[in-house]
Automatic annotation (TrEMBL):
PROSITE patterns in the cross-refs: COF_2
GO MF term (any one): hydrolase activity
Organism superkingdom: Bacteria
Keyword Hydrolase applies: yes
InterPro entries according to UniProt: Cof (IPR000150), HAD-like_sf (IPR036412), HAD-SF_hydro_IIB (IPR006379), HAD_sf (IPR023214)
This protein's name: Cof-type HAD-IIB family hydrolase
SUPFAM superfamilies on file: HAD-like
Keywords: Hydrolase
């Protein structure tokens, strides 16, 4: 039975050095040869994953945690954040000296010329500090934004803005998403195009933005390096990403044999 394999990128496909392990690549190639379909499910933007998609010959992806979905390289679902909400979040954040980053499918921009928290977190993705464009959200669709604050400062955003979701992905950064937006919702949109049933999906992930995906997929695998909450939701926990965890999971499930 063909499965739809939903692959998180950071900490799942890519190791802690943001490299694709050779064993992982070979496992993906064998799984595809066995008739399974590969899809990316990430919090990253489309423009941030182009080289990986090309290397793995993948044309189906859930990005922005479900806000921009493509099947065979054609967008099948888009959901932007309302500009007035972003305006209010930015005003709130400005009062607390917390910068924002806005992203669409093509680029990301910053609300400030430079900030060390932006530099630290964006560099962890191997990208440079974005250029400043404080008006970007007023004339462009924004599918995801980032607010830069520490964990103890995050609660005030949840309390002040209950019509969007804040999901932490870094020590100093939270994703801002439309309310209810998630990779799980992305899967439900995607299978309408791929023809798979929900029970034919297998999700692989490690982060807090993978929680709902773990719950909705037919089967779920968490990396040993994953967040404790993510591992609690998974059907199976594989090895650390730096120890060939994804390849071992594929072998355990009989996907690459």
């Amino acid at each position: 039975m063909s499965k739809l394999l939903l692959l998180d990128i950071d900490g799942t496909l890519l190791d802690t050095n943001k490299q694709l392990p050779g064993a992982t690549k070979q496992a993906l190639i064998r799984a595809r040869a066995n008739g399974h379909q590969l899809a990316i499910a990430t919090g990253r933007a489309p423009f941030m994953i182009g080289s990986l998609l090309e290397e793995l010959a993948i044309d189906t992806y859930i990005t922005f945690n479900g806000q921009y979905i493509a099947y065979e390289n054609k967008a099948i679902h888009k959901q932007a954040i309302e500009p007035d909400i972003l305006e209010r979040v930015m005003d709130f954040a400005d009062q607390r000296d917390h910068p924002l980053v806005f992203l669409n499918e093509h680029k990301m921009v910053s609300s400030i010329d430079f900030h060390p928290d932006i530099d630290e977190s964006i560099k962890s993705l191997k990208f440079p500090h974005p250029e400043m464009d404080k008006e970007f959200h007023r004339s462009n669709d924004v599918y995801q934004a980032l607010v830069f604050c520490e964990e103890h400062e995050e609660r005030q955003y949840h309390q002040a803005f209950q019509n969007v979701d804040f999901v932490r992905w870094h020590r100093v950064s939270c994703d801002i998403l439309p309310k209810g937006g998630s990779k799980a919702l992305g899967i439900k949109h995607l299978i309408k195009s791929t023809g798979h049933r929900l029970e034919d999906t297998i999700a692989f992930g490690d982060g807090l933005n993978d929680l709902q995906m773990m719950e909705v997929a037919g089967y779920s695998v968490a990396m040993a390096n994953g967040h404790e909450e993510t591992k609690k939701r998974a059907d199976h926990i594989t090895s650390h990403v730096d120890d060939g965890g994804l390849a071992k999971a594929f072998d355990f499930l009989g996907l690459s044999r």
